[in-house]
Amino acid sequence: PVYLKLGSEFMPPLNEGALLYMPTAFPGMSVTEARRILQIQDKLIKEFEEVDTVFGKAGRAETPTDPAPFSMVETTVVLKPSSQWPPVKRWYSSWPHFLQSLFHWVIPPHRTFEELQNDMNNKLRFAGIPNIWTMPIKNRIDMLSTGIRTPIGIKVLGKDLKVIQNIGEQIEVALRPMAGTRTVYAERSAGGYYLDFVLNRDELARYGISVADAQMIVNTAVGGENISYTIEGRERYPINVRYAREFRDDINALKRVLVPTPTGVQIPITQIADIRMVEGPAMIRNENGMLAGYVYVDMTGRDVGGYVQEAKKIVEDKVKVPTGYSLVWSGQYENMIRVKERLKIVIPLTIFIIVLLLYMNTKSGMKTAIVMLAVPFSLIGSVWLLYLLGYNISIAVWVGMIALMGLDAETGVFMLLYLDIAYEDQVRADRMRTMADLDEAILHGAVKRIRPKMMTVMTTFMGLLPIMWATGPGGDVMRRIAAPMVGGLATSFILELLVYPVIFHIWKWKFVMKDGTVIPTPSVHVLKAH
Fold first, then answer.
1. What sign for the dihedral angle of Cα 359, 361, 366, 372?
2. Is the pLDDT of residue 103 over 70?
3. Which long-range CB contacts under 8 A does 139-146 form with residues at least 24 apart?
4. How far is CA 263 from CA 113, 215, 260, 266, in A?
5. Which of 141, 419, 523, 526 is deepest in the core (most CB within 10 A)?
6. Quick check: 16 and 52 in contact, CB under 8 A?
């Protein structure tokens, strides 16, 4: 029951010491507005004492690898070391200092990374600009692997961009009030704004102007043309020539752009072209042979797996997807599902290899089964410690559990070895006739040898425990790897001491010793050599 209460995620949050703030506005934002919003955002972020530097960027470089419009801002926020963060009042702040230090590794005295994100998100509220929070390296990995820059993304696939945008807007409305949703934003795939010059070929022929000449006039007058470069040391800057802004800042001004004719007469461009504002796709995505639109979902305070399960039910009830269109849940959820399928192979294979090695060593199926009982014993402690620490099931946790299986085999074999040695010593001394003799052998093997068993477990336990206090980069991942082993070792050791002797007693008395007659086991000669 406790395991079912644990959440699930792809990877635990790896604190990079920096934040990447990526608000996304609706298409059509101007350069002036993008600059104004960017400066205000940077100023508000710098007001937080935890922030060291802020650097925002709007638009993109001259490269096809970064197709970012002005509507998508990328702000890199570099944080100070956590030791320099200002303290906040906690419920244990009035306790003695030595007691406060015990709680610092669970609840730090300053704002946590998640709390800082939420406070920044609440302060940076702009109409029509939903916030997206991530980390620089994590963002690049996510976008390269799935194309989604938020923990959860929904890909709407189909053949008509307007229908895709409509489905995305419905999903946005459906998920916005859902618990745990910090921001949800559907791309306006068909919401771009364009200025079209529709040339009239009859009028062009009448004035003797070619289509190429007319297009060149539009291109140079409105868009501009690089005619040369200025060289300043190692730097080179293009010299661009075009009409001044007052001649091209609205449609009426553009209609007065003059076009030269072969006869030398200059005519307004409206005599050879119709100028109009139209809407079209701001960006065309193609995936698996279908047009695609993305819905970005930024969440907080919930696990990815539980959120997606609830979100799927809401979308299924409230959003009608027409025939020929489909939804693909992506982002970290897509990676989580892929890893889950792989673990279905890795974990059984790991258990099979451990069982095979144990059987090859003990030559006894019963002994192998007794040793493998440590696995469920240890899982009890692992699950409870994960639940108490509030950790979700992730790749790091599964790696810790797989490593725990090896530790289980080690401690189980160690316990069984001492029980076997005590039993065989009694057999060689011909003192294994009654149940009292068996009880004495088990008492000697289980209780009087508890010190070396405890030393074996405690050395491993104390070696793992400092990882639980790790706070540097990677500490979040390492704690989740160590937590299953720390909790599992504690319960497996206790339950091995309590349960192993009982099972060993039942096995020897019921199946090996029959009516007080000892049937030698195949491992006697091995133990004598030991």
1. negative
2. no
3. 139/20, 139/22, 142/331, 142/332, 145/335, 146/330, 146/331, 146/334, 146/335
4. 71, 19, 8, 9
5. 419
6. no
**Four-CA torsion 166, 171, 174, 180, nearest 10 degrees:** -150
User: In sequence order, what are the residues at sequence separation of 6 or more whose Cβ sits closer than 8 angstroms to the Cβ of residue 195?
Assistant: 222, 251, 254, 275, 276, 277, 278
CA separation for the pair 138, 145 (Å, rounded)? 11
Task: Name the DSSP letter for residue 222.
Answer: I
Percent of the chain topping pLDDT 70: 93
Residue 120: exposure state from Cβ atoms within 10 A (0-12, 13-18, ≥19): buried
For 147-185, write each residue's pLDDT tens digit.
888 888 999 999 988 899 899 999 999 999 999 888 898
Lowest mean per-residue pLDDT among 38-42, 106-110, 251-255, 435-439 = 106-110
**Strands 225-232 and 513-514, how do they pair?**
unpaired
How far is it, in rounded angstroms, from Cα 252 to Cα 270?
10
Report yes or no: 37 and 129 within 8 Å, Cβ to Cβ: yes
Handedness of CA 472, 477, 478, 479 (dihedral sign): positive
In the DSSP assignment, the letter for residue 57 is: E
Question: Average pLDDT of the chain?
Answer: 84
**HEC string for 327-383:** EEEEEHHHHHHHHHHHHHHHHHHHHHHHHHHHHHHHCCHHHHHHHHCHHHHHHHHHH
**C-beta atoms surrounding 516 within 10 Å:** 12
Q: Three-class SS of residue 134?
A: strand
3-state helix, strand, coil in the chain (%, to 5): 50, 20, 30
The pair phi, psi for residue 52, each rounded to 5°, is: -95, -60
Instruction: Note whether 383 and 394 are within 8 A (CB).
Output: no
- Comparing CA positions, the residue from 149, 127, 139, 118 lying closest to residue 37 is 127
* Beta bridge partner(s), residue 20: 76, 134
| Residue with token string 């491993």 | 460
Angle at 74 between CA 71 and CA 80, to 5 degrees: 150
How far are the Cα atoms of 158, 285, 292 from residue 289, in angstroms, in the given order?
A: 9, 10, 9
Task: Provide the 8-state DSSP code for 23.
Answer: -
Q: Alpha-carbon distance 9 to 336, whole Å?
A: 6
Q: By CB neighbour count within 10 A (0-12 exposed, 13-18 middle, 19+ buried), where does 267 fall?
A: middle
Sequence-ordered alpha helix ranges (H) in 224-303: 251-254
Give the whole-angstrom CA distance, residue 132 versus residue 183: 7
Q: What pLDDT score was predicted for residue 527? A: 41
Helix 395-428 / helix 374-389 crossing angle, nearest 10 deg: 140
Phi, psi at residue 183, to the nearest 5°? -150, 140
